[in-house]
Amino acid sequence: MPVTLRPHSIRARVTLVAAGLSLIVFTLIGIGLDFAVRTRIQDGIYADSERIATYWINWEPISAPRPATTTRIDLLQFVDSRGRVLAASKAAGTTPITTVRPPADDRIRHGTSCAKSGCVVFTAVRLPPLETNLLWGGEPHFVYAGMAQPPILAGHRLELLTAAGVVLASGLASWVAWWVVGRTLRPVAEIRARTAEITLSDLSMRVPQPPGRDEIAQLARTTNRTLTRLEEAVNQQRQFASVVSHELRSPVAALYTRLEEAQLYPDEVDLRDTVDGAMATTKRLQAIINDLLVLARLRTAVPSPPEPIDLGALVAEEAANQLHGPPVRTYATGPVMVLGNRIQLIGVLNNLLVNARRHASSAVDVTTTRSDGYAVVIVADDGDGIAEQDRERVFEPFVRLADARQRDPGGSGLGLAICRGIVGAHHGTLNVEDSPQGACFVMRLPLMDADLSPTP
């Protein structure tokens, strides 16, 4: 199995990158600093030695056997063209500092000369031609001024100090990066630890949310919102499953009881009556299952492409199909165009109309109009109405009021829940509102030409 050298920790990776970059940067800085220090020290020595040599030429007698010096430039020599030391300071001795001569086109030359005893930084100055001609018959003479090379330039001490500074600075930068990244990622570790504790059986826990508006704080807030939605969805699913099992248990138990009775007492039970009862119970189960499938598809299926629909014409068409029972009177204020699924909206209107006619005393009024960018369909009956505390309960799955159970014993209690789900999928709302008499269902859908962004 190949071994990877790449660290898995973000903290380690960032620290390695910071260490590499800081090493490169500080190395470049160290090289530049080393060069600047060397140049500055040498330039200072060259300036002092040139000044001392020029001063000696101009003001001291050339024949002075031992020129005195009180500066760091303690090596002074007066040398002829054959390399003989004619005069020298006490520290310079009688051996020439160097054999280097200034070029013919320049009177001054700087340099460093090394021997077994050490290196010397010097300045060589050629005497002026007039003085040379007058005193020595044109034979060139030279003045050397210098000093022993400072220890910081003589060896690799400066380079070692610079390298040590680079290593220390890079180490400090790496430690700072390690500390900063660790402190930054500390909330991530806390979020990870808390997330590991959250299980499907207990979704009430939330991850710690750090202050501020940085990416980690936004991640924590988003995670908590997601956990809240997940908890709500799981609770709804559990409640839905509980209600479904309760609603299915009764007809299944009744069916089982009838069949068991027919099996135990074949001579006393009317077989035809048992089969008819079993068929009725099976139809009820089938209706409940079909409604459950419709409700499940509304929550999970990908919506089909919408089409333009004249809601007023669709209401009139569905009202005309209601043949038996109280009459349905429709009122429209002209074309009311919406975007939606025609089959689903027909199902909603049919369910609302059937429900209204079931509870109406004499008639059902359906009004289609436009209001504030929405198409509004009002289905009102003149029955007993719905109590205010039950106006939201009727949209819950399997919730059936006493009057509904009496008028439609075979109902599943899923019709209004499916209607609200369809309307919600169309970015609309379906509610029970106040009415002078009877129940009043109000459906609102965004108009096709409306400039608004409805909230699902």
Automatic annotation (TrEMBL):
Compartments annotated for it: namely: Cell membrane
Which InterPro entries does the record cross-reference, listed alphabetically? HAMP_dom, HATPase_C_sf, HATPase_dom, His_kinase_dom, HisK_dim/P_dom, HisK_dim/P_sf, Sig_transdc_His_kin-like_C, TCS_sensor_his_kinase
Q: Which UniProt keywords apply?
A: Kinase, Membrane, Phosphoprotein, Transferase, Transmembrane, Transmembrane helix, Two-component regulatory system
What EC numbers are recorded for this enzyme?
Answer: 2.7.13.3
Q: List the catalytic activities from the record.
A: ATP + protein L-histidine = ADP + protein N-phospho-L-histidine
Pfam families per the UniProt record, alphabetical: HAMP (PF00672), HATPase_c (PF02518), HisKA (PF00512)
The cellular component terms of Gene Ontology attached to this UniProt record, alphabetical and capped at eight, are:
plasma membrane
**Gene3D superfamilies per the UniProt record, alphabetical:** 1.10.287.130, 6.10.340.10, Histidine kinase-like ATPase, C-terminal domain (3.30.565.10)
One MF annotation (Gene Ontology) recorded for this entry: phosphorelay sensor kinase activity
Q: What is its main location?
A: membrane
- Any idea where the Histidine kinase domain is? 243-449
Q: Where are the transmembrane segments?
A: 12-33, 160-181
Q: Identify the residues that the record assigns to the HAMP domain, covering every copy.
A: 182-235
Which PANTHER family does the UniProt entry name for this protein? SENSOR HISTIDINE KINASE TRCS (PTHR45436:SF5), SENSOR HISTIDINE KINASE YKOH (PTHR45436)
Task: Tell me the protein's name.
Answer: histidine kinase
Q: Which organism is it from?
A: Planotetraspora thailandica
Ranked from the top, the taxonomy reads: Bacteria, Bacillati, Actinomycetota, Actinomycetes, Streptosporangiales
